[in-house]
Design a protein that fits this description.
alpha+beta
Length: about 450
Amino acid sequence: MESQDQVIDQLLRILRRRSVEGYEIFFESSDHFEVEAKEDKVDTFQASQSWGLSLRLLHQKRMGFSFATSPSTLVSGGLREGLERLVEDAMAASRATSPDPCYEFAPPLKAPPPELPINDRSLREISEKRKIEYARNLEASARSFDRRVTKVRKASYQESSSKVTLLNSNGLHFTYDLTFSSVSVVAIAEEGGESEMGWDFDFSHFFDRIDVHRVGQNAAKRAVERLGGRRISSGSFPAILENQVAAEFLSLLAHSFLSEQVQKGKSVLKDRLGTKFFSSLLNLVDDGLQVEGASASPIDGEGTPSQRTLLVSQGEVRGFLYDRFWANRERLGSSRKEVESTGNSRRHSIKAPPGLGTSNFFIEAGKTPLATLIRNLNRGVLIQEVMGLHTVDPISGDFSLGCSGQWIEGGEVLHPVKSIAVAGNLYQLFQNLVEVGDDLRFFGKIGSPSLTIDRLELSGN
């Protein structure tokens, strides 16, 4: 198979002979590795490669898209013929769409984007044996925490190494490398005929920054802490959302900050720019340069430099998220001529064109440790898990979810709680925020510290 440069060179020759107004080529190749340990032995071991090429072109103000996910799909019958088919498929797709003046491709970069620490150059040199030990040590750490931990499942290590190239007819041409390592484990604790499960994970762009022992111990600790759970009386109580739960609620809130949803009237934040809508303790940011999150990259999915975008400052709505299309749409439809892309074009799959989305979306940390949040709670619940978040309506924000956690009285954890439900409204939840923890953690591309909410409706006995 020809090299990436040879494929791109031939594709450019074909495109320059076509009567198109512009084009964009996205190329990504990745190596993947995964190992899972079970009973101190290798249970699964997988190594694979992925390859993808996608093309967007603009013809008569109509956008067309096509893709290939394997070199064999292009070289069957000859590379040139395969690339000709790719271009023709994109042309056919453009003819099936409506013209729109908001379509455009990114201009060339005015200056090199910052060099982000997202590429572990040593990853390829680390032996498979050492990576297998990560999975085995993960399992051992969970098992060693407590005698009540009787089973460990899915103790796995995963990694990927990717090269991304993006170029277009405006002169943009940029390539960057990206690595990603992660571990995850499920621990099961049993006592008196009761069984509870705990899970934890960690990820980093660098192999040696993952704390395998801590992840195993945390998963086991979560499982053990849930043993002996009780139901509680129904009522309205203050609640602490542990950072993982807070991040899950925050992922639902992200929908409201996408300019597409705002312009379509599907966001409760429409017409609220510059107004105080949330608690004055809430500071919310989207930052594609934040390397602690999983979506850090020097450019977004269409070549706009990544940036930090302040969305909420002390409860005031300060901005929304844009790619080039939705920024153009807002400029054409309003008097806000200063609107530009915030670098929020995301590529979720090689099989789909880029679309508007969050990068690293997070609540800025406060200064209060979780232990202090607990001490400050006279009577309420620490919510450590919620079930059924997919049922929440992101427009109305109303929710009723199963949850579990710890019951707190007098600033002390008394016992686990389970088989309870929490009800409320997503937007009121962030309006009723009264304390912000210092334990900001990213769960993929969503990050949050633990949060204390003034009141939530809990249904127990």
